[in-house]
Amino acid sequence: MLRHLPQPSDPNLLLGLGTDDDAAIYRLTDELALVQTVDVFTPIVDDPYAFGAVAAANALSDVYAKGGRPLLALNVVGFPRKLPLDILAAILRGGADKAAEAGVLIVGGHSIDDPEPKYGLAVTGLVHPGRFVTNGGARPGDAIYLTKPLGTGVITTGIKQEKTPPALAAEVVRVMNQLNRAASEAMMDAGVHAATDVTGYGLLGHLHEMAAASGVGARVSVAAVPIIDGARTLAAAGAIAGGTARNLEWLADKVRWAEGIDEVTRLLLADAQTSGGLLIAVAPQRAGALEAALRTRGVETVARIGEVTAPAGPPLAVDP
Question: Is it true that 2-127 and 143-319 share their CATH fold?
């Protein structure tokens, strides 16, 4: 559908619609470019304050994935009149506190009467026009890193189905609340080839976007992929979001699965994430520098999950 819409054309538009990337980048001067993005979704946890904070972290992540620094944000709100306004106040407070943690000013927004609550941010940031990271720069031989564990989609679906234990629900909120700022700063210091963040299309969906944009393939090792403890049990119990099932269906002709990789594992690799980690491709000789930079900045998950390959057959391969 989007291919049939008018495509923007401007020499200062450095990153637009062409590669399904995370944000737009527009050059203002030789030293300064704007980063623009928006993300809105329905509640994924029961606590309104936590929902607001997670939604804000998720929206800010797109700027971090490009190596940018978010500066300003606008609230985007849908809220039903039948619910108490103190719920909306808690959502907005959660978003404001997370934005403040990131050093971002929320300077306004827009709200509409909506049958189902929705919240997110439109975010504006800055980046150097000659020093930003796209999803299209991966090269054969690059190491692939992930900076947060998978499983948020399964666990939050389990919350809705009343299957997720309270301790696990608290852990998934903690993981989703982590800003990708430190990981972004680390990748910029290390000098990486490509990056994106893992959100609604799942690990393999976003890795496919990177591979397609870069004209390469990619191989993932299941044993190296970090998964939140308890997510596998919930997935086996049927806590699977509709988006996750659609992700896996869409990947059918795009992945070569090694023999013996079970359905639960496949679902987890396609699990629709919220506020997931950065997915980074870096030259192997810079992998050590990236790991060191991530750990120095306190990034909890530093997982080398695979490698970029030359294009051949299905773009993605998943090994044990």
Answer: no
How far apart (Å, rounded) are the C-alpha atoms in residues 234 and 240? 8
- The CATH class of the 2-127 domain is alpha beta
Residue partners of 246: CB distance under 8 A and separation at least 6 = none
Question: Model confidence over 265-289: pLDDT tens digits?
Answer: 999 999 999 999 999 999 999 999 9
Topology of domain 143-319 in CATH is Phosphoribosyl-aminoimidazole Synthetase; Chain A, domain 2 (3.90.650)
Please say whether the beta carbons of 30 and 74 come within 8 A: no
**Are 195 and 61 contacting, i.e. CB atoms less than 8 angstroms apart?**
no
Backbone dihedral angles phi then psi of residue 278, each to the nearest 5 degrees: -85, 140
Query: 92-145, pLDDT tens digit by residue?
Result: 999 999 999 999 999 999 999 999 999 999 999 999 999 999 999 999 999 999
What pairs with residue 194 in β-bridges?
A: 281
Burial profile 221-239: b = 16 or more Cβ within 10 angstroms, e = fewer: bbeebbbbebbbbbbeeeb
Confidence (pTM): 0.97
Could you tell me if 190 and 270 are in contact, meaning their C-beta atoms sit under 8 angstroms apart? no
